[in-house]
């Protein structure tokens, strides 16, 4: 490994960069290999790029061709020469020793991504852990296990603070535009990597402080609950086998909608019909993503396996 890039996605985020960039520069200095810090600006209306250039002259700045949300990384990684790229939201602070634990895993040729761990902004509570997948009542769900702070495999690495093998990322085609503008694109990417036999690792020794959803609030598409549900449905329809019959699925859906309405929450009622309508228009394009039950079981077994010993 010859070089690494810390790539920070930014849109109108100067108030976040003021906290992140000093810690990113410090972490880069302690990196065991050559490490650059780069701000990928999604065409901020505010003069964020000029501010970075004036105050952090060692930090590179690149302006994306358009504000394409996280998908601007697809364009950027095709331009970079580095073997490993660390994808970072701007609403973070990095531990000074952030880099070494992440990078040590890439000595194994089959590692695709490594996820850091995160605390809340005050550093008092872990907010992330390894990601897992299960199937309940007709629908899949994926979740973090923040109580499990150990080196292990993970279903996917969090797109807000993960290191990726750049060539593998590009070979997979980067983030899938089925999930534009955001949510579940990192889940889908990690799952497609597992299908190739490429592992994702959760590394609790690499730590960030995260002001959750702060960077997303600056986005013109800030509707996280709706997007998260819509894209969760897209992911299971595109990629996962159905493990119960159709009447059972419809009964489960009715309970989800009805339970939400009893709580005064109409999210499922609003999103599910629209998502299904949109999926019917797109499903032929993404039909090759779906796995069989046997393939899913093999992936789940690989995720549950211990991480092989790595060099310190």
Describe the structure using short key phrases.
312 residues; alpha/beta; two-stranded antiparallel ribbon
Structural description of this entry:
With 312 residues, this protein is α/β, with parallel strands linked by helices. It has a single domain (1-312), classed as Spore Coat Polysaccharide Biosynthesis Protein SpsA, Chain A (Alpha-Beta Complex), CATH 3.90.550. The chain is 38% helix and 22% strand. It is built from eleven helices and eleven strands. The strands form two sheets. Strands 1, 2, 3, 4, 5, 6, 9, 10 and 11 form a nine-stranded mixed β-sheet that branches. A two-stranded antiparallel sheet has the order 7-8. It is globular. The model has no long low-confidence stretch (mean pLDDT 93).
Q: Helix and strand layout, with pairings?
A:
Elements: E1 3-10, H1 14-29, E2 34-41, H2 48-55, E3 60-63, H3 72-79, E4 84-88, E5 92-94, H4 99-103, E6 111-120, E7 131-136, E8 139-144, E9 152-153, E10 161-165, H5 166-171, H6 185-195, E11 199-210, H7 214-217, H8 224-239, H9 246-262, H10 267-282, H11 293-304
Parallel strand pairs: 1-2, 1-4, 2-3, 6-11
Antiparallel strand pairs: 4-10, 5-11, 6-10, 7-8, 9-11
